[in-house]
Design a protein that fits this description.
Elements: H1 5-36, H2 38-49, H3 53-74, H4 101-106, E1 115-120, E2 126-130, H5 134-145, H6 165-175, H7 178-183, H8 185-193, H9 205-222, H10 228-231, H11 238-247, H12 250-253, H13 268-279, E3 289-292, H14 295-303, E4 315-320, E5 340-343, E6 346-356, E7 363-369, E8 372-376, E9 385-386, E10 415-421
Parallel strand pairs: 3-4
Antiparallel strand pairs: 1-2, 4-10, 5-6, 6-7, 6-10, 7-8, 8-9
Region (Disordered): 1-37
Biased composition (Basic residues): 1-23
Length: 422
């Protein structure tokens, strides 16, 4: 469709008006925040009681710093690669269920070739097409670009089966939690398109089809439609684990030990890292993710000591161990925990965590959904549990999720704290 000059002019005017409104809103917010800032209030009192040049300068600087901080926080950071993805826009999401996909998502060992629902025939029956067809991929890309905030009541977390807790916690933190969901959109688009980051096709075909099933599992978990048929899924991720393990080229897996089979013990981050490495995340536009696991690195992060670090990372994962390994950071010895950290001139915010229980047998996670905190344990066979989990990072206290007897303690056990650039 051709856009006339008149329409272009109207669009430019609308964009300028929208920009002015956004700037005005930020300034209004900054002014209100500055008036409540303790540093600003103290400087104001000193300037009022003794209005000399020194006190007036301090007051001005305090106000400017408060406004600067608010403006930075009001602009939510987005990884560079998101600019290349399908534009997010409001619209209707279509359920892809109803063509036998439920069976692929519930069984431990099933095929990865499946069909998706792209609409209805005149008689009301579903129009089913292969997921790896042009129309199948198109409907999933449509849903990805039209996603809306999650309804916590609709979410279907994956169930615990065959020791897949490590995979399920990765699934929830990277694809359901607020920041993970935003930063990993590129991963989902690659899975749907069946392409590596360099544009080449994912091979073999079985692996490409497995990635499509992985994306379908994420859609099923979101359960945007919320119908009874969609909500009855017993989401089992073992079919995905099994087929990734069997289809990823051995030339890659022999040098990347994070890819595990069903019933094998796995590390959530190691699996994700190896999987995204295969997709080509060494590309400069991919989100920059690093792990700080040694005492010096963890303490430097919390102290904003970045003399030897030139990279501004998009995601920083703090890994705290209970293994007793020399030089490794422990939950007891790490520098005092912070929910928000300024490091290397970038602002980071804790979005989620993954933790191993006190018996070193089972993983759970804490996520943030619509800015509220929830706990998840697949073994509890329950919905997400509302709980302000960040308080557990400060207390040497054991706790459980739901009615299980499994105990966690973030001040003594193994954990990963996921900080995203904010």
């Amino acid at each position: 469709m051709t856009i006339t000059r008149k329409n272009k002019s109207k669009n430019k005017t609308k964009n300028k008006t929208r920009t002015r409104k956004n700037k005005s809103n930020i300034l209004d917010l900054s002014s209100r925040t500055a008036s409540k800032d303790k540093a600003v209030e103290n400087a104001r009192k000193k300037a009022r009681n003794n209005p000399n040049i020194h006190n007036l300068d301090n007051y001005t600087n305090a106000v400017m710093e408060s406004i600067k901080k608010t403006v930075i926080q009001s602009k939510s950071f987005s990884p560079l690669i998101n600019a290349k993805l399908k534009t997010m826009r409001p619209g209707k999401i279509t359920s892809i269920m109803g063509c036998g996909l439920k069976d692929n998502l519930e069984r431990t060992a099933a095929g990865v070739v499946f069909r998706v629902n792209i609409g209805e025939n005149e008689n009301g029956s579903p129009i089913c097409v292969p997921a790896n067809s042009f129309r199948g991929r198109k409907i999933m890309l449509h849903n990805l670009s039209h996603e809306k905030p999650l309804n916590i009541k609709n979410i279907i977390p994956p169930m615990q089966k065959h020791s897949n807790c490590w995979f399920n916690t990765m699934f929830m933190t990277f694809f359901v939690s607020d920041k993970g969901k935003k930063f990993m959109r590129f991963f989902r688009q690659l899975m749907i398109e069946g392409k590596l980051l360099n544009g080449k096709l994912i091979k073999p075909k079985r692996l490409s089809d497995t990635f499509l099933l992985f994306n379908a599992a994420i859609e099923a978990c979101y359960n945007h439609i919320g119908t009874s048929d969609d909500s009855s899924i017993a989401l089992n991720t073992n079919n995905i684990i099994d087929n990734i393990y069997k289809s990823i080229p051995s030339s890659f897996s022999k040098n990347h030990e994070g890819i595990k089979q069903v019933d094998q013990y796995g590390n959530p981050y190691s699996f994700y890292k190896d999987l995204t490495t295969y997709l080509g995340t060494e590309n400069r536009s991919a989100p920059k993710i690093t792990t700080f696991k040694y005492v010096a690195d963890v303490n430097n992060f919390y102290r904003n000591n970045h003399e030897k670090i030139n990279t501004q990372y998009d995601v920083i994962i703090i890994q705290l161990t209970d293994s007793g390994a020399r030089g490794r950071a422990t939950p007891q010895g790490a520098f005092p925990f912070k929910k928000e950290v300024i490091f290397n001139n970038a602002n980071y915010k804790l979005d989620s965590f993954i933790a191993r229980d006190t018996e070193k047998q089972h993983f759970c996670c804490g996520i943030t959904c619509n800015k509220k905190q929830y706990l998840f344990d697949g073994a509890a066979f329950s919905k997400l549990q509302p709980k302000k989990w960040s308080k557990y990072t400060r207390k040497n206290k054991s706790w459980s999720i739901g009615k299980t007897k499994i105990k966690w303690n973030l001040k003594t056990g193994y954990s990963m704290l996921l900080y995203y650039r904010h």
